[in-house]
Predict the 3D structure of the following.
Amino acid sequence: RPSPCSRGAMAAEAAEVEAGPGGCEHYRRGCLLQAPCCGRFYPCRLCHDAAEDHALDRFRVRHVRCARCHRRQAAQQSCEDCHHLFGEYYCSICHLFDADKKQYHCEKCGICRIGPKEEFFHCSKCNLCLALTLQGNHKCIENVSRQDCPICLEDIHTSRVGAHVLPCGHLLHRTCYEDMLKEGYRCPLCMHSALDMTRYWQRLDSEVAQTPMPLEYQNMMVEILCNDCTSRSTVQFHILGMKCKNCDSYNTAQDGSCRVSGPSSD
């Protein structure tokens, strides 16, 4: 039965063979990182973490091995022996080698981001780089990027998948946001509408007007709480939805008992 040490060595060899000279499924690069924790060589930190029982600290990487001539050397952009390019982009802080994707290192985030840099700004309160179109146009939540994605429960701040900022200020992975919209429209954390629903509410207005409730429900009033503006109001019950009196949203929930208005039906 292989020891944990030999299993780790075999996993490293398998990762190197699978990656080939052009990198791995995560990054295009011409070298392997020597993990400062276990000394093994892996195409990237993600390949290492998938095979080992511990995480690779990218900032502590000091040596790499050329994928072409196999020379072990200090981390740098190209091989000092055969001059093989390790990465079109190289960050000497994160030790990120990859194809050119207009990456840049954000000192405030502490890691590299995909750019171009001039199209992003760092929001100090959210603690994340966001598109310039969101500057002064998003709801800030303190250190929101340090929270895990509420859909997949994985890290957002260091993820290779971009973050999507919801109107409520919460973050999701962009891919998780797209998957969420196939099933619903509300933030999984606070239930606020995740996109502009104005046109859908207008269509629902028409459907409600064309769908009269049975006689026994026509005078039934319910208390509702709006998930979009947090207002409470008392409205007529309708099976298709109950509209907030404050913001006209149908993103509401019953928040009290029902009562019949007007004269008794007895």
Summary: The helical segments are 4-19, 45-51, 174-180, 198-209. The longest helix spans residues 4-19. The mean pLDDT is 90. The two ends are 81 Å apart (CA to CA).
